[in-house]
Amino acid sequence: MPVDKQLRSLAIDVPAQPESLVKLSLLLADEDVNLQAVGGLITSDMALAAAVLKAVNSSLYGLSGRVQSVQQAITYLGTREVAAVTFEMGLKAVFPAAPELEAVWERASVRGLLMGRIGQAIGVDPWAAHSAGLFEECGKAVLFRHAPQRYKPLLRAAENDEDLLLLEHDEFGVSHDALGAALCETWGLAPAAVHSVRFHVMVNATLQLPMQVQRRAICAISAIANAMMRDPATLDVVAAKVAPQAELEPTLVIRGARKVQEQIENAVERERA
Q1: What is the pTM of this model?
Q2: What pLDDT, on a 0 to 100 scale, did the predictor assign at position 268?
Q3: Which of 51, 105, 188, 196 sits a CA distance of 20 to 30 A from 181?
Q4: Domain, as residue range, for 243
Q5: Domain shared by 132 and 148, yes or no
Q6: Under 8 Å CB-to-CB from 110, ≥6 apart: which residues?
Q7: How many distinct structural domains can be found in the chain?
């Protein structure tokens, strides 16, 4: 999908999807996903496979023992989560390694996992939810890649993402939410995921889902994941506010989110023990 003409006119490069992820997307699009082919594709890139194994062996995924191969990871976690981790590593790899981006990628990993599992728990496309979580802040990486010396002071000055959007518009004429959505489109993510990335700052600030978006469930999951990461005590209030706007049952959403939260907490506790 082409990048918006207005963004092209700003001469800010939106990186192309790596070939390995293009091939992975094609495999995942098949109704009968070939698990051996998925594992083989990831394993064929040694650096990527090593990064995936390191990620899935972290405490976040709560595995009882270390996995030694991509195929073993697929057996334990399922194709979707391993594919999502692969996308996470591929996304990170197209941007420069920088201390300023480390927190962005850490939040992306946690948010993607939360959103994917909440989606699975409440019957909303878990792949779209997981990928939306991964890509939510990627527009920051696009701007950092474009002009690191101009962007670093903005990251330091902004107290929150709403402030950052204003600073980005003043400096670049575009903000990270729009650039993130453009990257999602370029990489072929589902429209619902693209919309979630585009509107996440507004949704998190106001708890109002965008009326111009028909399918708002992933936007709602984004707000719930944000509450879980920033202030878990607000989970029930946030879910009660956004779920009806997406035609979701609040009680079901809260129950699903709490279950996921418990899974993550238990995994972290086992790692510490």
Answers
A1: 0.90
A2: 66
A3: 51
A4: 98-273
A5: yes
A6: 60, 229
A7: 2
Which of 36, 69, 94 corresponds to the end of one domain?
94
Enter the tokens of residue 259.
């279950």
* Alpha-carbon gap, residue 172 to 43, rounded angstroms: 39
Helix, strand or coil, per DSSP, at residue 208: coil
Window from 155-159, 229-233, 264-268 with minimum mean pLDDT: 264-268
In 3D space, the residue among 131, 83, 74 whose CA is nearest the CA of residue 108 turns out to be 131
259 shares a domain with 144? yes
Q: Which residue shows structure tokens 């708002």?
A: 216
Amino acid in position 139: G
Give me the CATH number covering residue 246. Answer: 1.10.3210.10
- Asked, for residue 250, whether it belongs to a domain, the answer is yes
Give 269 or 236, the one with higher predicted confidence: 236
pLDDT 10s digits, 136-150? 999 999 999 999 999
**Residue whose token pair is 């409440």:** 122
